[in-house]
Amino acid sequence: MNQINHSIPSNRLSAPSRRLSVAVWQTWGYFVAFIALGLVSASLGPTLTALAQQTRSTLAAASFLFTGRSFGYLLGSLQGGRLYDRMSGHPLMAGVLLTIALIMFAVPLVPALWLLAAMLLLLGAAEGALDVGGNALLCWVHGARVGPYMNGLHFFFGVGAFLSPIIISQLTLLSGDIIWPYWTLALLILPVAAWLWRVPSPLPAAAAPGDAPGVRAPATRLSGSAARLLLVLIAAFFFLYTGAETGFGGWVFTYTVRLGLGSETTAAYLNSLFWGSLTLGRLLSIPLAAHVAPRAMLWGDLVGCLVGIGLIVFWPTSSLLLWVGTFVFGFSMASIFPTVLSFAERRLAITGRVTGWFFVGASAGSMALPRIIGQLFEAIGPRVTMHTIMVDIIAATAVWALLTFFATRAAKAATTDR
Questions:
Q1: Alpha-carbon distance 32 to 37, whole Å?
Q2: Domains and CATH numbers, the chain
């Protein structure tokens, strides 16, 4: 364990108590960082129309911003994972947060679409590095006990994503533009960077001490070709899941306005409902993660996603079912990402590099699906948004079935060999 910073009141504690005290500070640092990440991640959808006007672009052209940002996310995830294996984690996370704040300050001042896309590519790279760091370091702190903490981490991401459209909507109404909303989000990030800078970083998984006595041992971990195939399947699942989450969160605002199902203010609140229901679901999943197997949770989540998106697809003119479907869809998506990470932690050695590959899949999905929706939106019509997302969720369900089948068979084979 790194030397404890003097700002953490643990110098009079015994060694186990000191480690627990540091772990609490570390864990809350990641939680607050993910509130900041949620604030930033959910900011593009509600401001897409304003950014198109700012750069004198069409919506179809402005949808390229999703692609640039997600490509940056992919690069940040891949390179960031390697950096966390080699460098002290918290100074790296603090630097990434500072970078995000500076870019958010500059976004509403950029007049050219190509330059804005380049800035969002850098923003995405910083977000990817922050996302990988929070997830990997949390696994290093808690090991096999990470399940409830992982759900808590993504709950706090949902808190930020829920608050972001509300902050943007209210400040836009007050100021008449998107400058103050972006600047406010940038200022909120700075204290988080200072927090992480002052808290000691955890040791990498390979160097960390074992789990405490009495903690349930992890399931059989795979190696070799079995581990690589499992890694590919999990990355593919994240590709589909994140595409659906980003596609819905990024386009439901414009979908609602274009179909005449609500005003821009109403659409912003609907956007917040999606992130709010996702946040509520993650809050409720924290105690569930300690008692329910990841496989059972995931099947329930995927069925709920199909029900929620189905309500919107099959009754496209109903404002009521749009709100109900949005809530059900967001609530059902809530625990998918952290639960799959917990599932992976029990079957793979979670290094920064492995976590980075998970987020490469996730960022590729968040790059591909919103871009596809953007190209089809004006060519076919707004309703294609929800149809595309429904096809994506069906494909994710098929990949999860294949993933669990393979993981079960590979684990049995590994146990038999031993």
A1: 9
A2: 22-204+220-417 (1.20.1250.20)
